[in-house]
Amino acid sequence: MQTAFNPNLPGAGEGVRTFTKTLKHMSAGGLAIKIIEPGRVAPTPDMLDAVVAGDLEAAFTWAGYSMAKAPVFSLFATVPFGPGPEDMTSWLLEGDGGRIHHEAYDKLGVTGIPCGVQGPKGGGWFRGDFNTVDDFKGARVRFGRIASKVIERLGANLVPLPPGEFFYNLQQGKVDGGEMATPAIDAALGFDKLGLPYYMPGWQQPSSVLDFLMRKDKWESLTLPQRAQIETACRANIAWMLSRSPHTQALALEKLQVAGVVIKQWSPELLAAFRQNTDIVLKEWAENDGDFAAAWANQKKFVAQGVAWRSLSRLP
Known about the structure:
The chain is α/β, with parallel strands linked by helices. Helices cover 47% and strands 12% of the residues. It is built from twelve helices and ten strands. The protein has helices at 12-26, 47-53, 85-93, 97-106, 145-153, 163-171, 183-188, 216-221, 224-258, 268-288, 290-305, 307-313, and strands spanning 2-3, 59-62, 110-118, 124-126, 140-142, 157-158, 177-178, 198-200, 208-215, 263-265. The strands form two sheets. It has a six-stranded mixed sheet with strand order 6-5-7-4-8-10, with helices on one face. A four-stranded mixed sheet has the order 1-2-9-3, sandwiched between helices. The longest helix is centred in the C-terminal third of the chain and has 35 residues, at 224-258.
């Protein structure tokens, strides 16, 4: 099984190791998965194709890498101002999210199982102050697929960079800023050494789903108990990631601040602009893709149903 994540990094990297360890114990060694590091067999964005072609028996990946196949996968990967990790998990396991997720992969000949939920990213690292919409005009920035369209509407120039090249380009001044990952991953990658401010919150990705993938025929060749063990190990992995993430990110922020990183919050003006333009971009996507439109409406309705409970049940 090739992973999209460096197994030595916190969060998703730890998640792949925890999943395989749990599965091995649950199956008494009957399902022992060898982890193949990112890019060893197939480039990370192409792992789904490698699973379909039979070059990989399985993959542990981010739902966003499947967006090129169908826009609906973005709803599990990176929805600006979308559901946080709790709501995402609830939609997956109690709402229609799990069905929509399964059907989207099934159309591609793949069995996809939600196998982790990651919390919000940081808002990004920037060379200088970004407090107004004007500050983004002409700025060279790196953002993901949906967020990039939002930022582009503010007048920024998008610089497409793979994650591994962002640090160097930011250090050399070849880009003015952009997003990377969660605080824990950013700290592990040494972003504190850049001496740049770190913006919060990560409006562009409040949560994301990690997937276990197998080609459909290979999945169906497994026994029912084996399938149940994989599904149960994935659910356990979701619970483990949800419980671990808040404290891990808090410790990472402390580490960054001790190293001298200035944590800044997005201004109300920029958050309002991000939200306004996000609505425009997502509506355009919905107009162009029926599956995305139906799934997005379903997700929004499900999350909205919980607003009253959250408001009444949580202390101010």
